Amino acid sequence: MDSLTIPHLHLLLNHVPTVGSVAGLGLMLLALIRRNDHLLRASLEVLFVVALATLPVYLTGVAAGTAIEEMDGVAVNAIRTHETAALVAFIWMQLTGLAAWLALWQSRRIPRPPRANVGAVLLLSVLTVALMGRAATIGGEIRHPEILTSPAAAAAGAPAGWLTSGAIADFVTQYPWVWPAAEALHFLGLCLVLGVLLAVNLRILGAMKALPFSALHRFLPWGMLGFSLNLATGMLFFISAATQYTENIAFLWKVIFLALAGAHFLYLTVFTNTWSLKADADAAPLDKLVAVAGISSWVGVIYWGRMLPFIGNAF
Amino acid sequence: MSLILAVTLVVIVAVALLGAAGRWVDASADRHEGN
Q1: Which residues contact A228 (CB under 8 A, 6 or more apart)?
Q2: What is the pLDDT of residues A145-157, one digit of tens each?
Q3: Is the ipTM of this complex over 0.85?
Q4: Does the pLDDT at position A174 exceed 70?
Q5: A225 with B3: Cβ contact below 8 A
Q6: Residue A185 with chain B: CB contacts under 8 Å
Q7: Cβ of A176 under 8 Å from any chain B Cβ?
Q8: Interface contact flag, A177 B6, Cβ < 8 Å
C-alpha cells in the first residue's frame, strides 16, 4: 500500500467514469430496445453510481496533476487541457446522475420511469460519454506522446474560456462576496440534506411510526437539492484552493464518507424493503442497521469537513 | 456594507431558486400519481 500514490489512485479510478458512462448508456439503450423497465431502472442506478464515483476521480486528478507537473516527459499544457475537459465532463456527468436519480424517485410511484425524464437522461448520457472520451484521450496524452492525436493542443498554452478551473478560481477569489455566499449556501444545503435524511432514517429506526415510508420518501428531492447545492459550492471551494484540500487528510476522509452517504441516498430512493414500510410497521433489523450507517456517514462528512483546518491543514 | 448586501442578495436568490426547484419536483409526484 505504501506505493499507492495519488497519481496511481487517479490512474486506477479514472476508468470508472469513462467505462461506467458507456456501460450505463449501453444498458439504457438495451432496456429501451427490449422495453424492459427493470433493466431501465438498473441503467439509471448505474448512471447515478458512476456520477458519484466521478467526484473522487476529478479530485484525485487535480492532486495528480500537481504531483507530476514538474516531472520530465510530462506535457504541462496537456495537463491543463485535460483538467478543463475533465471539469466539463464532470459537470455533465453530475447532471446525468441528477436526472437519473429524479427518474428513479418518480418511478417509485408509477409503473415505469417517466418518458420525458428517460429522454433527458439519454441525451445527457450520450453527451457525457462523448465528453468523458475526450477528457480520457487528452489525459492519456499527458505521459504518452506516442499516441498524441493533436500535437497542437499539447504545444498550445493553457486553455482559455470561462469554464476552466483557472477562470473559476479567479472568479471566486477576485470578488469578495463569492466565497462567503457559497459558504452560507454550503451550510444551508447541509442543513437541508441532513434534515431530510434524518427524518427519513429516523422513521426506519422506529420514530414517527404513524407515517408510512412513502410519505417521507416525498421529502427526498429536497435532500437531493441540498446535496446538489453542496456539490456545486464545494467544487467552487476545491477549484479555487485545490492544494488546501488535496494535501489534507481530513478531506480524504470527507470524500470517503460522502461516497458512502451518496450510495445510502440511492438505497433510500430505490430499495423495496424500506418503500413497503406501511404506517405503524416496524422495519427489519438489517434496514435499521443501514439507517444507522446512513446517519453515521453524514456525521462523518460533517465531522471531517469541520476538521479540515484542525486535523487537516486548510485555511 | 456592500459586501454584506451582496452576500445576502446572492443567498436569498439562490434559496428562492432552490425552493422553486423543490416545489416543481414535489408537484411532479402529484402529477404522476394523478392527484
Answers
A1: A94, A98, A189
A2: 666 666 555 555 6
A3: yes
A4: yes
A5: no
A6: 10-11, 14-15
A7: yes
A8: yes
